[in-house]
Structures are given as C-alpha cells and as structure tokens.
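Quiz preparation item.
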C-alpha cells in the first residue's frame, strides 16, 4: 500500500473516531484526541460506568467530578454500577424514545448511531402549569406521564430540578422508565431532586445515573445520554459484550482479555474540538 493510501485510511479512521465530539477538521480532531487521552490518564477505563465517569470529566472539565457520579437501580444482571449503562444501551438498541426536560438538552443529544425518537417535555402541560402555578417542566412531566410516555423510555433531565422531582413522584406511582439520566443544575432543589431520583431508583429498581453537588446542567446530561448511545453502537458493532457485570468486566480489562471499555471515548456536546 502506498503512503498516500495509508494516510487516507488513517484519516478516515481518525475522522470516524472523533467526529462525534463535534470535530470535523484535522486540527479539531487532534484537540479531541488529546483531550480524551488526558481524561484517561486520570479516570479508569475498565467498566461501562468508567465510560460515564470519563464522559462526565470531559464534559465538566474537572477530573475530580468522576467521584461525584452515582449509579443506582437494577437490570437483569443485578444492581452493580454498570446496570444503568447496560439498561440505557439496551433501550437504545430497542429504539426506545429519548425524552428530555428542555430544548437545550434535546439539542445536545446526537442524531447519529441510533434510531430513537428524541423529544422534549417542555411545551406539554401548559394549561396545568397556568392553573396550578407549578413550573412548566414539572407540569410537562406530569402531563406526559398521563400518556405513559416515560414507560420504557430514556428520560434525560439536565436543567430543571422540578422536572426531576415530578418524575420521581411518577416513578413512585408506578412509572418505569428504561433509565433516568438526571443532572439538573442550580442552588434551589437541584441536589434534593437528584437525591430524590436516587431514592426511588433504589427503592423501585429503576436504573438511574445522577451526581452529587450543585453542578451539572444540560451539556452534562446530553453528553451522558450520548455515551449510552455510543455503548449501544459498540455493542452493535460486536466489539462490546453488554451482558457482563462490572466486576467481571473490570477483571477482564485488567488481565488484558476482553477489555472492551470504550476505546475512542466519542460523544457529543462535550466542547472540545469544535
């Protein structure tokens, strides 16, 4: 093979690996690659949960943020920390709906690598909000729940604590999303809303990915949802075995046998390389 053909093949592989970071030029892809390489120096790369931690660090620009991520709930394999990631990836493979709280989160969810319908809650329940005075996002969640919209869906909340609180009430009353990604940000009810999601997640087994502290936001929630999509993409490409518990996956990764944690760390809405 000539050097020119080799370079073309390398460029194509490089582009496929980092395009989902928003990078479309050589310089941007170099930045994206360097950024993820730095993240992997500080964040383990053994389990599916590690992929979420890496994406959290990359999205927030803070290495210590990896210690703030929480995984709760169960799937068919158990309640290990990989359970919400497995559940989310399966939902993507089954083309489940993705429902976000607001427009900004919806805009950050990638349109590549899946056939899920992505929609936003905001805009529903307007009459309920006007009549009761509750927030528009809380009213939207309650209105959609009446339509069973959350059953088996990926529900992503990146902005509104009241949306997370409303969703927690719905779960308590019997609603069962496939997975909840809840990272609302702020000083009023944000921490409490994520704690409430964790409580119902643990009590009723609903898989959930949250974090502790005041930070978070739409970019983080979209990035973590995108990572679920990328896990599903890797499963579809037969490079990733989904039905492994976290402990088994980590042991394989340490031994060099089947260490199939994300090799490229691609994702959207993370900021680097655009």
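Solution:
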């Amino acid at each position: 093979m000539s050097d020119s053909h080799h370079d073309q093949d390398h460029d194509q592989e490089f582009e496929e690996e980092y395009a989902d970071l928003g990078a479309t030029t050589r310089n941007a892809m170099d930045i994206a690659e360097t950024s993820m390489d730095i993240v992997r120096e500080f964040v383990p790369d053994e389990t599916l949960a590690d992929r979420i931690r890496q994406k959290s660090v990359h999205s927030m620009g803070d290495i210590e943020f990896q210690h703030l991520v929480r995984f709760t709930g169960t799937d068919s394999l158990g309640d290990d920390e990989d359970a919400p990631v497995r559940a989310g990836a399966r939902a993507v493979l089954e083309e489940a709906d993705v429902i976000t709280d607001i427009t900004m989160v919806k805009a950050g969810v990638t349109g590549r690598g899946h056939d899920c319908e992505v929609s936003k809650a905001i805009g529903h329940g307007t009459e309920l909000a006007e009549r009761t005075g509750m927030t528009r996002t809380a009213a939207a969640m309650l209105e959609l729940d009446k339509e069973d919209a959350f059953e088996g869906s990926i529900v992503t909340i990146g902005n509104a604590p009241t949306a997370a609180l409303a969703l927690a009430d719905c779960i308590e009353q019997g609603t069962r999303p496939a997975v909840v990604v809840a990272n609302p940000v702020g000083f009023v009810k944000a921490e409490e809303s994520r704690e409430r999601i964790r409580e119902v997640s643990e009590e009723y087994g609903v898989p959930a990915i949250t974090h502790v502290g005041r930070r978070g936001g739409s970019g983080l929630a979209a990035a973590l949802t995108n990572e679920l999509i990328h896990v599903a993409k890797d499963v579809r490409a037969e490079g990733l075995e989904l039905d492994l518990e976290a402990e088994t996956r980590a042991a394989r990764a340490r031994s060099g046998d089947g260490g199939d944690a994300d090799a490229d760390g691609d994702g959207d809405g993370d900021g680097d390389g655009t």
